[in-house]
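Z., the sequence and structure:
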Amino acid sequence: MPKKYKYPTYQLRLPPELKAALEDVARKNERSLNSEITHRLEKSLEADEQAAAALAGDPHQQINVLTEQMGQMLKAVAAANALAAVESGRIQIEETGNNDASDNQHAYKPD
């Protein structure tokens, strides 16, 4: 008997490089490829709605929304840069041996 899905299915053609990149990110986020694509599309639509609302609002609200979005983007870029530095070996992370959650449990050493 064929498997029944909660939502309608949709075939999607992706360039191999994009599919591989999405599969890698999905694995790191502990999601299926479908869940990763769905998550990213939902976030994209939310961002579009926020931008449209900001443009329709008063200038102060527009600045607040854009500042929040830029802050989120900067955090994402910083996290991606840190991950790339760790994966490339430019930064080493070492356990400090202290298991107290209130203390910093990792130290890093730039090369």
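The chain has two domains: 14-56, 58-111. The longest strand covers residues 91-95.

Let me know what you think.
H.
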